Each structure stands twice: as structure tokens, then as C-alpha cells.
Amino acid sequence: KQEVTQIPAALSVPEGENLVLNCSFTDSAIYNLQWFRQDPGKGLTSLLLIQSSQREQTSGRLNASLDKSSGRSTLYIAASQPGDSATYLCAGGVGSEKLVFGKGTKLTVNP
Amino acid sequence: DVKVTQSSRYLVKRTGEKVFLECVQDMDHENMFWYRQDPGLGLRLIYFSYDVKMKEKGDIPEGYSVSREKKERFSLILESASTNQTSMYLCASSLSLATSYEQYFGPGTRLTVT
What is the pLDDT of residues B60-101, one digit of tens each? Predict the structure, then answer.
């Protein structure tokens, strides 16, 4: 059974810092890996989707990578801003339509 | 842009009531999902549907049922609400296999059962 883990559960950084959020999964037969952002009390916003045949995806200041052999994905945020403060969730597609979610990393970017 | 809407942002119901949560997507997606999100437990899949009138149980279907009579609409039904169903409910949709299942979420419904 696929399990997805995100460490740390919370992270606080000063504005302008480059940072990396980590996601690990137990089953390398992952179909895709999706990163989401969630603001308090709100739904999830899709940030990046990496298909199993890809190694990374980029959108603006965000870059996500996928290493199936090591069971890891990372989300790199460049030049962090206070508006980046949110909870970031990763989720792995597991060979059907379903996603398995990690519990998220709560990011705080301090001005 | 894909838009997924949910009928209510906040809902307060009494124990034993029948509760309907509605979700509508406007992008002709085949797949639709209902999750609940609780502190410390993350998102858990309740039910999903891959076609009209088709449904499959997720990880925690007990106490819930679903209905999908039209492609764009997926309803979650709490037959007899209980306090342990107080939670944030999130609906999502995705296209078929051809697009690698990228899921798009609605804004969520915060349900409180008293």
C-alpha cells in the first residue's frame, strides 16, 4: 500500500530564502506526483504535476523533481515571499485514478 | 480554467439529519472524488466516481453514500449525520487516464454536526 510522508510538518523561514520541501513515498510504481498548496480553511490549489516519465516540472519560482528509484520528490521555492505562506501537500498517483496524500508541510515565510 | 464548486462553504446540522453535499465541475471531467480532511489525519478518500452512475468506495466509505446522475455533478450523502462526521469535505475532479489524473479541487465545505 502506497504511503506518502512529508517532513518536516512545519517550516519557518525569512523572506527571500530559497527552500526545499520534501516528500517521500513507499511504492516506486507511482504513476505521477502532484504538489498542492492549501491556504487556511480553503481547498487545494494544484501547483505542479510530474508524470512518472518526467524528472521535473517548473512553474515560475517553483520547481518540483521526482526520483522514483529513491522514492522522493522535492518542491523547490526560490526567493520565498510572505505570500508563499501556506500548507504544501504532495500526493502520489497509484496506478488508478486515485491519489495518496501526505499530511503536508506548513510553511511560514516571515517578512 | 477548471472550476469545481461546492454547494456550501459552511454547514451546521444536527445529529441524525440527512445531509447532502453537492459538487459541480464545468470541464467535462470523467472522474470525481469526495475527501474529508481532519487535523493530523490528512486527506482521506471517501468515494470516487469514474463515470455517470458509477462509483467506487475509497478508504473510509462507512456512513456515506454518493450519487452521480449527471457527469458534472457528484453528491455526497450522510444518511444519518453523527458528530464524528464533523470535518472539512473536499470535492475534486480529473480527466481520464490520458491526462495522468491531475486533480482539481473545490473550495471545501466545513460541516459541523451538533
Answer: 999 999 999 999 999 999 999 999 999 999 999 988 655 567
Nearest-CB residue to A49 (from B41, B102, B107): B102
A28 to chain B, closest Cα gap in Å: 16
Residues of A in Cβ contact (< 8 Å) with B33? 97-98
Cα–Cα distance list, A2 to A24, A35, B34, B50, B59 (Å): 10, 16, 19, 21, 13
CA terminus-to-terminus distance, chain B: 37
Contacts of A42 in chain B (CB under 8 A): 107-108
User: Cell match 480554467: residue?
Assistant: B1
pLDDT tens by residue, chain A, 111 residues: 889 999 999 999 999 999 999 999 998 888 889 999 999 989 999 999 998 888 999 999 999 999 999 999 999 999 999 999 999 999 998 766 688 999 999 999 999
Here the cell at position B12 is 451546521
Q: Within a 13 Å sphere around the CA of A90, how many CA atoms are in the beta-carbon half? A: 29
Q: Quick: pLDDT tens for A91-109.
A: 998 766 688 999 999 999 9
Q: How many residues does chain B have?
A: 114
* Contact call for residues B100 and A31 (beta carbons, < 8 A): yes
CB atoms within 10 A of CB A74: 17
User: How many Å lie between the alpha carbon of B69 and the closest alpha carbon of chain A?
Assistant: 20
pLDDT at A1: 80
